[in-house]
Structure formats: C-alpha cells, structure tokens
Design goal:
By secondary structure, this protein is α/β, with parallel strands linked by helices. It has two domains: 164 residues, D-Maltodextrin-Binding Protein, domain 2; 138 residues, D-Maltodextrin-Binding Protein, domain 2 (3-Layer(aba) Sandwich). It is built from 13 helices and eleven strands. Helix 2 links the parallel strand 1 and strand 2.
C-alpha cells in the first residue's frame, strides 16, 4: 500500500513536471531572423552572439537565423517583414518601401569615425529618431543601426578621370535609391539600378562595369574572393549601413520583457559592429592590393572638392524626395 502511494506520487510528480515543461515549451516564442551578412563577414558572428544573448536571457525567445540573403535581398526582406512573413531582419534598409528612407543615403553626412558613432551608434541621434518614425509608419519596428564604413566602387574597368566630374566611360550598378543614383551620376558615372543579389553575376558577365556598393571588406569578401574586379575607388559618398528591425506584426506578439531584451541585444550588436568595422577597413585595403587590385585614391583636396560638388549639386534636389523638413531636422546644428 505504501509502495503504491509512493509510486503514485512519483508518477504524479513526473506528470506535473511534464505538464510544466510542455507549458513552458508552448510559451516559447520562435522567431525567424533573416540577414544579409555573408558567413565569412565579421558581422555574421556578431549576429550569432546577439541571438545567443537573447536566448540566454531566458525570456522565452528562440531564434532561427538565416544569413547570407538566404531568404532574400534587403529589398525583399523589408517587404516580407511588413507582411509579417519574417520576424526580425538584419539588412540595409532600401527606399523602395518609402521615399523618405532616402534620408539613409544622404551623401556627405558622415565623413569620420566620430561622425559614424554619433550619427549611427547613438540610438537617440537625429537620424535614428527619424528612421524609427518612418519605420513605424510602415508597420516595422526599428531596433538599431550599424555603420560598417564608407562606401566605395568596385570595378572591372578603370574609370576615366576618376577623381573629376566628367564622363567616366563606365556603367556601374547603384542600389534602389534615387539619391544614390543622382550622387553617382553627378560624379560622371553611367548607372544601372540593380538588386544586391544580381551584382556579382552581372559584374562577372560584363553586364555592368562596376558597382558602388562596398566597404573594403565587402569588396574583398564578396568580389576579390570570387576572382571578380580589378579596381577599388573609395568615393566615400555614403555609409555601408545595416540595420536591425522587426516586423510590427511579430512585435505585437511579444511581451515587454521580450521586447526589451531584443532591443538591448540589437543595440549592443550594432555598436560592436561599428567599433569593429572601422578598425578592419585598412586591413582589407591591403588584402585587395595583395589580390592584385589597384586602389584609386583621392587627395584631401580632391575629396573636399567632391564633397562640395555633391552638396551643391545633389542636396538641393533631395527635398523633392525626402522632404525639406527631414533634411532640415537631420542637418540642424
């Protein structure tokens, strides 16, 4: 009799434990994170560490990570996140979803590492505040911004008078940004708008002569490593930016503790990326040279002239795209 009661107690305890475990499992939120970092890019490990931080916080969140644009390019991911098909995204925010997002492409806004940290790394900066508002209008939740460095051009053909403003004699890819297109064409390049996923095969096949797209690291890890490209031109007209954001539909399903953990982890990951990226750039310039690439440098005078040319010829046109109020807000001292 005593044995029966003992056995019954064990069975009851096991049943209760199983019930609690099943309940805890049922309460776990499983999120899908789509990213665009290649697995050999330093940002891939940063995202993996971010996921580990979120899961280790023990707030009932598990994340499946799909890097290297497995679920689509940045242009595609923002649309899927709006629909709620993807829960979390790490990617560049393209402006096809809202022309006001062109504010991310304002040329010449950032020219130094201190600028990069202040504008991109500070969650309360003017840029991040503006971006959060636009994303909210789209049904998205902005989490954090990374600035990996300044963007240059990779090319198979050497541009004519690369530091001047005349016709360069080459056709290069620009991303889906009217600002990027205007800026690049103002420097004398012919342009073709193309999704990121199409760039490498297009450059391999000669459909385009080059692409404005990349920090030295992206130029090396994506193009030089594939045996594509001969020249890198550090025009530095824009920031290689990557943002963390969430689908608003998915965000609504999370409790406040889960939201706080995800946001804090994303902000920390973004700051690690910013601090790491700047230190890495020069090393990848050297690796490009070792791979046989020619780096077409600007003198300080040539760069100052280029920035002045862009601000004089491109900035006035941006009001029609993003709104003069946003430009004034972003550039106000």
């Amino acid at each position: 009799m005593k044995l029966g009661k003992y056995a019954f107690g064990i069975i009851s305890g096991l049943a209760l434990s199983g019930l609690l475990a099943t309940t805890a499992l049922a309460d776990t939120v499983r999120l899908k994170l789509a990213g665009t970092y290649p697995v050999n890019h330093f940002g891939h490990e940063i995202v993996e560490n971010m996921i580990k931080e979120i899961e280790d916080a023990d707030v009932g969140v598990k994340i499946s990570y799909f890097p290297a644009a497995q679920l689509g390019s940045g242009e595609e991911l923002i649309e899927d996140a709006v629909r709620g098909n993807i829960d979390l995204v790490q990617a560049f925010i393209y402006a096809q979803a809202d022309p006001r997002l062109e504010i991310m492409n304002l040329p010449g806004l950032v020219t130094t590492f201190d600028d990069l940290k202040a504008v991109y790394g500070n969650p309360e900066s003017k840029l991040n505040t503006i971006l959060a508002g636009i994303m909210d209008d789209l049904g998205l939740v902005y989490l954090a911004n990374t600035g990996e460095g300044l963007v240059g051009i990779v090319a198979n053909e050497k541009p004519t008078d690369y530091a001047g403003f005349g016709d360069k004699g080459v056709n290069i890819r620009v991303w889906s940004s009217e600002v990027a297109k205007k800026t690049t064409e103002s420097l004398g390049y012919r342009t073709t708008t193309m999704n990121w996923a199409e760039v490498l095969p297009a450059l391999q096949s000669g459909v385009i002569d080059g692409a404005i797209c990349c920090t030295p690291e992206w130029a090396y890890s994506t193009f030089a490593a594939a045996g594509v490209g001969k020249y890198f031109i550090p025009v530095n007209t824009a920031i290689e930016a990557s943002s963390f954001y969430a689908s608003g539909k998915s965000w609504e399903k999370l409790n406040q503790e889960q939201r706080d953990v995800i946001r804090a982890a994303a902000e920390r990951a973004a700051n690690v990326a910013i601090n790491t990226a700047w230190e890495r750039n020069q090393g990848f310039v050297e690796q490009l040279k070792e791979a046989g690439w020619e780096i077409l440098e600007y003198s300080p005078e040539e760069r100052a002239a280029m920035v002045a040319h862009i601000q004089e010829n491109v900035w006035p046109e941006l009001a029609d795209v993003v709104g003069q109020d946003l430009i004034d807000e972003l550039t106000a001292k």
